[in-house]
């Protein structure tokens, strides 16, 4: 037989289990009311330990939370039947928190209830399973949840990160809650906010150091074959050489061939503000990214800053010839850019959205194919440029 104290301790332990919290709080029909077995006193206990049994019965009569179910039992050697507690029934999650006897659990339940009421349901599982947010002011966590439900990729359009909430949050909100916002946006966009970083994901103006990999494909233009420069330095630093190759991901560095008079910049992702610099526009420019909606979105951003930039290996032919490496794109971009893509690139976008596996990551392309495309680019007349459509 279990005392109220025994089951109170069990209830508190169960609250500390993320799996149990998720099951009971997010699937109420399956788990409520919660019924806890108390266990009947044995015949030996009744006959040999009557004081303990009486104390047990009295303790359960004093329980006022939920409902204690009793059963009349006849024991050998007793002239009268005994009413004993057999089950403790708790009707709701709030009674679970109250019955745990823990002020900490009750406080956490109260905060979680307020947060769940205010947050988009897509975030409920995150908040129920993780309790790290409890160390933050509840009103700010609620504000972060509401903000994360409204933010969209590239929604800042080059404005500072502190402007993501308009006038409703203070300028340091993003600094205090950046990891939380990133985690919540990851839920909506399949981890993309973490992959790109919160600022690049929102297309925010760079307010901190974003270091890019700069590679000398010529071998004699820079003091080192590879070096790191801050994105903001590329706005004013004049890189040597005639050509600049912008590559979405660092992990495909090994595919790049030696190219005369050429510098490559890798790992910029959506952080392409530095392309606006007039000194960048003096170079022959090319962009190479993944063949998916995000890669085309980044190409469009690059074109917005430098309309003459060429796209390499981002076409229907490359996709079709390497279809065996294509995978599902977890969260395609919702909106097709209006005017920065060519007609064939817009058609590619629509084809990718229609594909079950509409993502071809650049590092899976054959090395010979990449080398041929790069050498064909530098052999092209430097005066040629991409013709970009306008609306209508």
UniProtKB/TrEMBL annotation:
It comes from the Bacteria. Pfam families: DUF3322 (PF11795), JetD_C (PF09983). Residues 206-372 form the Wadjet protein JetD C-terminal domain. Residues 4-186 form the DUF3322 domain. This is Wadjet protein JetD C-terminal domain-containing protein. It comes from Abyssibacter profundi.
């Amino acid at each position: 037989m279990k005392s109220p104290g025994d089951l109170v301790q069990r209830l508190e332990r169960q609250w500390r289990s993320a799996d149990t919290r998720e099951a009971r709080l997010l699937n109420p029909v399956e788990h409520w009311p919660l019924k806890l077995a108390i266990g009947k006193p044995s015949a030996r206990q009744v006959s040999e330990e009557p004081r303990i049994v009486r104390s047990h019965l009295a303790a359960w009569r004093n329980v006022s939370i939920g409902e204690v179910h009793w059963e009349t039992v006849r024991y050998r050697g007793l002239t009268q039947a005994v009413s004993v507690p057999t089950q403790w029934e708790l009707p709701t999650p709030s009674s679970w928190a109250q019955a745990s006897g823990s002020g900490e659990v009750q406080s956490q339940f109260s905060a979680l209830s307020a947060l769940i009421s205010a947050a988009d349901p897509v975030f409920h599982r995150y908040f129920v399973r993780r309790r790290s947010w409890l160390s933050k002011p509840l009103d700010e966590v609620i504000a972060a949840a509401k903000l994360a439900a409204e933010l969209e990729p590239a929604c800042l359009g080059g404005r500072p990160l502190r402007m993501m909430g308009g006038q409703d949050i203070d300028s340091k909100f993003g600094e205090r809650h950046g990891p939380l916002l990133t985690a919540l946006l990851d839920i909506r966009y399949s981890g993309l906010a973490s992959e790109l970083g919160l600022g690049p994901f929102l297309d925010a103006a760079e307010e901190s150091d974003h270091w890019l990999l700069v590679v000398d494909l010529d071998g004699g233009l820079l003091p080192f074959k590879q070096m790191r420069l801050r994105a903001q330095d590329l706005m004013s630093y004049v890189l040597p050489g005639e050509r600049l190759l912008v590559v979405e991901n660092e992990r495909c560095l090994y595919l790049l061939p030696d190219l005369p008079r050429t510098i490559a910049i890798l790992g910029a992702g959506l952080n392409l503000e530095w392309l606006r610099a007039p000194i960048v526009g003096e170079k022959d420019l090319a962009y190479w990214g993944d063949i998916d909606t995000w890669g085309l979105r980044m190409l469009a951003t690059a074109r917005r800053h430098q309309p003459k930039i060429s796209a390499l290996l981002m076409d229907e032919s490359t996709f079709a010839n390497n279809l065996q490496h294509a995978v599902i794109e977890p969260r395609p971009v919702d909106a097709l850019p209006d005017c920065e893509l060519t007609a064939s690139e817009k058609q590619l976008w629509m084809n990718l959205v229609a594909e079950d596996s509409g993502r071809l990551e650049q590092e899976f392309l054959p090395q010979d194919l990449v080398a041929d495309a790069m050498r064909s680019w530098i052999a092209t007349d430097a005066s040629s440029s991409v013709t970009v459509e306008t609306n209508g």
